[in-house]
Amino acid sequence: MNKIKKISVIGSGYVGLIQGVGLAELGFEVVGIDIDETKVKALNKGECPLYEEGLEELLKKHVNKNLVFTTSYEPIKESEIIFLCVGTPQDKDGNADLRFLFSAVEKIKETIDKNDYKVIVIKSTVPVGTNRKVKELLKDYNVDVVSNPEFLREGIAVYDFFNPERIVLGFENLDNKKPIEIMKHVYKYFDEKGIPFIITNWETAELTKYASNAFLATKISFINELAKLSDKVKADIKTISYAMGLDKRIGNKFLNAGIGYGGSCFPKDVKALIKQFENNDIEPILIKATDIVNEEQIKWFFEKIKNYYGNLNGKTFAVLGLAFKPNTDDLRESRAIKLIDMLLENGAIVKGFDYVKKARKNATNLYKFDKSMAFYGYNIYILDDLYETVKDVDGIIVTVEYNEFNNENWEKISNLVKRKVIFDGRNILVPEKIKKFGFTYFGVGR
Ligand SMILES: NC(=O)C1=CN([C@@H]2O[C@H](COP(=O)(O)OP(=O)(O)OC[C@H]3O[C@@H](n4cnc5c(N)ncnc54)[C@H](O)[C@@H]3O)[C@@H](O)[C@H]2O)C=CC1
Ligand SMILES: O=C(O)[C@H]1O[C@H](OP(=O)(O)OP(=O)(O)OC[C@H]2O[C@@H](n3ccc(=O)[nH]c3=O)[C@H](O)[C@@H]2O)[C@H](O)[C@@H](O)[C@@H]1O
């Protein structure tokens, strides 16, 4: 097989950028294509538009060497492999919105020569049947379409790129060895590392992605539902999770009770999976419950806060954590933001903090530019310093699972707050330690 020279990666968001930078580090010549001109300009200067540990260093190492970014689709003419990494957000009915994907496919059609062989690899999370549709759209072209769902986690995405737990590849016809060989060549590094490859058909690959996310989300909703009972009967959900997790069949991961899952994927992918069931006339009982439990969890936690104070009007809260999880700037479906909105709607004053500078910047922009928030705009402050954030507050609310919170100076914090009350929405603090400084502590199910 000819050595693959150039790879195009369409979409330079969390997935596309990691994919592009990662492939560049593996020695390929990569072109990143995005419709966002500002993003492309920044990337070509080696500036990372999103925060991901280790990403900017790798970007700087390869940009303008074996990695370039452009808004033009022209470079795909020179690439045998084209990765599609555009967003597939939720539409108004809960389905995956494939507008960006189909628009990228249209651009591919306009650009490539019908006779030039290409492998088009869909990394975006797409509903069952999408790879087939894309192939149908390209039926007059000499292309193979491959489903290659992405499993990376934000916050540790660079690590995940180089250390995947599996590589799933879905093909139209397993007897057609050409695209299989090409994909194995691109992912040779992982093959040599002994990472399992799952070579299957399109539908299995597409559904594996949704199944994985929905299963993890279900584990979280399961423990969150149990946490409500645990809370009431004074059991300790952390001990329950630990004890459950020691059973290897259950495992200890994703059993941390809290204020629910957020992010750009679990909420939308669970909803999109529900829609795929419904579109196939099957009632998705369990997965629907996962979604409902998650939507309710934050409301339950908020009620807990409200019940304690009686009236939130004029009360000031320090909200520790803004993004949907630690070490990211991503505010999409962040439970912290949902909680802040509820506090503001109830007349509270919010002081928000996150360790990630870009998360603070994104939150500042969100409240500054979101017109619907303008009404209570003056009631929200995003601060750069944790101690400033807790100063004179009626309560501290932990919304992101940063272990680092335990290493802060709690004696100092206890002297800064107006009232020593903590609502730990992620069960991340060590209550014994905090209580020593006179705090009243509320967790989730403990
Ligand atoms: N963010 C994550 O951790 C993960 C995301 N995924 C999936 O990967 C896909 C991408 O997700 P993210 O990277 O988070 O999205 P994102 O929103 O961060 O990035 C998407 C990028 O695509 C660009 N784009 C849109 N239309 C385009 C077009 N026609 N041509 C070129 N560029 C275009 C946008 O400007 C944007 O930069 C989604 O399907 C998502 O569900 C899968 C695993 C992990
Ligand atoms: O498809 C995707 O986009 C990705 O979605 C998740 O990754 P991510 O959204 O980055 O974050 P997670 O670490 O999975 O956390 C998701 C949410 O669940 C919450 N969570 C996680 C674990 C837990 O025990 N409890 C809990 O509430 C987190 O706080 C966070 O809000 C999956 O873990 C990835 O494998 C997948 O590729």
From TrEMBL:
Residues at which substrate binds: 151-154, 209, 254-258, 262, 325
Keyword Repeat: no
Keywords: NAD, Oxidoreductase
Keyword hit for Protein transport: no
Binding locations of NAD(+): 34, 39, 88, 125, 154, 268, 332
Name of the top EC class for this enzyme: oxidoreductase
Gene Ontology MF annotations: NAD binding; UDP-glucose 6-dehydrogenase activity
Pathway note: Nucleotide-sugar biosynthesis; UDP-alpha-D-glucuronate biosynthesis; UDP-alpha-D-glucuronate from UDP-alpha-D-glucose: step 1/1
Active site: 265 (nucleophile)
Family listed: Belongs to the UDP-glucose/GDP-mannose dehydrogenase family.
Protein name: UDP-glucose 6-dehydrogenase
Species assigned in the record: Methanocaldococcus lauensis
Classification of source organism: Archaea, Methanobacteriati, Methanobacteriota, Methanomada group, Methanococci
